[in-house]
Design brief:
It is a single chain. This protein is an alpha+beta fold. It has one domain: PPM-type phosphatase domain (Phosphatase 2c, domain 1), CATH 3.60.40.10. The chain has seven helices and ten strands. The strands form two sheets. The protein has a five-stranded antiparallel sheet with strand order 1-10-9-6-7. It has a five-stranded antiparallel sheet with strand order 2-3-4-5-8, covered by helices on one side. The protein starts with a strand and ends with a strand.
């Protein structure tokens, strides 16, 4: 069984929400997407909306076919949708300006799941009350060349620290990170944009996911995370999807 709660908000300082969040569920099959339009660039909301549109179209096609492919095939298909969205955003919106979005996707099918990411949005999982980050940020700090050439202190002090090195739609090609595993009994996941995790500390995220895991009160856990983000000023758009699978 899959249950979920999704929420997106402009935050307290923005007038346009450049995030998109989408969820598609049928029985033990689900696809969840959070995409964060690049706030410092033109028309980021177009990029994130294009991602949601592509997955909506993909879902409708799957549902019209009747029998679903196996997990490995679905994983390949989801990655292809992300790459197709990258091509469309790059071709349609990058004309003399940068337009792009970060993306995280969770595919759940039976007792298997896969996480897809590009950029710096996050996917967490909570299993046996332990919080684990399943994604790695595509930032300058994490490049192999950076790690090889600088100490950790030098990286943190560098002006390039925290800068994105890739996002969907900003280049012809995109390196989509994919991680797959099995659902271990009952498991909870959180997809979120940086507007949430930068203003809601890891202890709070772990506490709320534990509550969602134990009590299955996903809406309440979501509201508590957003409440902390707003208390901390919520300067950015905020989007999240909380999922419980068992």
């Amino acid at each position: 069984m899959i249950i979920y709660s999704a929420k997106t908000d402009c935050g307290l300082c923005r007038t346009v929400n450049q995030d998109s969040a989408a969820a598609f569920v049928k029985d033990n099959f689900g696809i969840f997407i959070v995409s964060d339009g690049m706030g410092g660039h033109s028309r980021g909301e177009l990029a994130s909306s294009a991602v949601a549109y592509e997955f909506n179209f993909f879902w409708q096609e799957l549902m019209s076919q009747g029998e679903l492919p196996d997990f490995a095939t679905l994983t390949t298909m989801v990655k292809r949708v992300i790459l197709e969205a990258n091509t469309k955003v790059y071709q349609q919106y990058n004309h003399g300006q940068v337009c792009g979005a970060t993306i995280v996707v969770l595919l759940v099918y039976g007792d298997c799941y896969a996480v897809f990411s590009a950029g710096d949005s996050h996917v967490y999982t909570c299993l046996d009350q332990k919080l684990t980050l399943l994604t790695v940020d595509d930032i300058w700090d994490n490049l192999p060349s950076t790690i090889k050439s600088y100490t950790q202190e030098e990286i943190m002090q560098n002006e390039r620290s925290g800068k994105l090195v890739q996002a969907l739609g900003t280049a012809k090609t995109l390196d989509v990170h994919v991680k797959a595993d099995r659902i271990k009994g009952k498991q909870t996941f959180l997809l979120c944009s940086d507007g949430l995790y930068r203003f809601c500390n890891a202890n709070t995220i772990q506490k709320r996911l534990n509550e969602a895991y134990e009590k299955e009160q996903l809406d309440e856990a979501m509201e508590e995370m957003f409440r902390e983000v707003f208390q901390n000023g919520a300067p950015d758009n905020v989007s999240a999807i909380l999922i419980s699978v068992k």
